Amino acid sequence: MKMIEELERKLGYNFKDKKLLERALTHISVSKREHYETLEFLGDALVNFFVVDLLVEYYPTKREGFLSPLKAYLISEEFFNYLAGKLELHRFIKMKRGRINETVIGDVFEALWAAIYLDTGRDVNFAKELFYQHFRDEIIRAIREGKVKKDFKTLLQEITQRHWRERPSYRLISVEGSQHEKKFVVEAKVKDFRSIGEGKTKKEAEQKAAQRLIEKLREENIE
Predict the structure, then answer these.
(1) Which residue of the set 22, 40, 107, 110 is catalytic?
(2) 119 is catalytic
(3) Percentage of the chain surpassing pLDDT 70?
(4) Rounded distance, CA 44 to CA 77, Å?
(5) Is 156 found in the same domain as 118?
(6) What is the mean pLDDT of residues 89-98?
(7) Quick one: which of 26, 111, 151, 155 could link to 39 by a disulfide (CB 3.0–4.6 Å)?
(8) Is the model's pLDDT at 84 over the cut of 80?
(9) Of all residues in the chain, what percent carry a pLDDT higher than 90?
(10) Does residue 132 sit in the same domain as residue 212?
């Protein structure tokens, strides 16, 4: 209970239903019934809304192509972990098996804000203002610095859906090298545009292929 009270002090909010907060902090390895996963599902939508609403408030006239890379960073696991660190959230997570890694911390961060939202009787404005009390300055700083998550696959998909309402495809061409020094070669394709990417993993090769395909499309003034 002392840990719960400490987190409430950090938040500046006292829960009416303490069990709701406990559930937000509890991994499925501790309880198969009272764990954070459903809250995380709700919290994902809530926190994304809080962050994107602030982004659009800061840049009310910018187009989607400008905003999307910023949004991708601001709702990323990396940034949510940074914000969670301000609350030292990792200290309060209940987990029996495995390691409290970035994914777990990001999920609990989202679950926490869903718990606050539900505890206030679904008062989204209260939850948003409390969120901004803690993190508005950090989010604005990230926006001003133009921090972006270089997720080229997401950026490419946004471009292709905007222009042709279809997704790019990826094809594994080859895997070369020894077991410990593999090189993956992947082709990215949309319409008649193609590009090749290489990497130590399939995901890395796909990102490289997507990046090169974006560059080709921009040469054709498609962005």
Answers:
(1) 110
(2) no
(3) 98
(4) 11
(5) no
(6) 92
(7) 111
(8) yes
(9) 70
(10) no
Residue 139 and residue 85 share a domain: yes
Q: Are residues 121 and 17 in the same domain?
A: yes
Among the options 22, 44, 107, 119, which is catalytic?
A: 44
The range of the structural domain enclosing residue 199 comes to: 152-219
Q: What is the pLDDT of residue 151?
A: 75
- Joined together, the tokens standing for residue 108 give 């609990």
Is the pLDDT assigned to residue 91 strictly greater than 80? Answer: yes
User: Same structural domain for residues 195 and 113?
Assistant: no
Cα–Cα distance for residue pair 37/23, rounded to 1 Å: 9
Per the document, the length of the chain is 223
Q: Over 70: is that where the pLDDT of 150 sits?
A: no
Report the CATH number that the domain containing residue 90 is assigned in CATH.
Answer: 1.10.1520.10
64 and 118 part of one domain: yes
Model's pTM, two decimal places?
0.70
Q: Where are the alpha helices (DSSP H) in the chain?
A: 2-11, 18-24, 37-58, 64-74, 77-86, 102-119, 124-144, 152-164, 202-219
Residue 119 CB partners (closer than 8 Å, separation 6+)? 15, 16, 17, 20, 21
Neighbours of 219 (CB within 10 A): 10
C-alpha to C-alpha distances, 76 to 54, 83, 179, nearest whole angstrom? 15, 11, 31
Check if 176 is active-site. no
**H or E element at residue 176:** strand 169-176
The model's confidence at residue 16, banded by pLDDT at 50, 70 and 90, is: very high
